[in-house]
Each structure stands twice: as structure tokens, then as C-alpha cells.
Specification:
With about 70 residues, this protein is an all-beta fold. About 0% of the residues lie in helices and about 25% in strands. It has strands at about 1-5, 10, 25, 30-35, 45. The termini are far apart. The structure holds zinc ion (ZN).
Length: about 70
């Protein structure tokens, strides 16, 4: 049993089976959580979805003009 850092709900999970970098989902608030450490006790942190910078990939299409006939 571990505690969700977002909503403080108890998440039913076998602590002995947890590994670092494993991800869990809180049943209460639906948050995606990452196991940052398992010793001396299980430590979870919420995955920050706002860090994704998908918009930057839109600039990759600048090279289209190179495909004109030569
Ligand atoms: Zn939660």
C-alpha cells in the first residue's frame, strides 16, 4: 500500500514488487505516478504531462523546399 502524492489516497499495490522508474496510475484521481525510489520507503512523484514540448516538432517541415527539381 502506498499513498498517492496528488490526492493522498491509498493505492493498493504490492510495495515489495515495485521497482524504480515504474509507473502507476492512481485509481482515485487518475494521476500517472512514477516510482522515484523504493528504499528506505516507496517514494512516488506525479508525471508532469505539461513538460511535453510537442509543438517544437512542427518546425521540422522547413526542409520541404529542398525537394524541388534540380
Ligand atoms: Zn491520486
Amino acid at each position: 500500500m502506498v499513498i498517492c502524492p496528488v490526492c493522498d489516497a491509498e493505492i493498493e499495490v504490492d510495495e515489495d514488487g515495485l521497482e524504480e522508474e515504474q509507473t502507476l496510475t492512481c485509481d482515485e484521481c487518475g494521476a500517472d505516478l512514477r516510482v522515484v525510489s523504493v528504499e528506505p520507503e516507496v517514494d512516488l512523484e506525479p508525471l508532469d504531462e505539461e513538460d511535453e514540448d510537442d509543438e517544437a516538432t512542427d518546425l521540422d517541415e522547413e526542409d520541404d523546399e529542398d525537394e524541388t527539381w534540380k
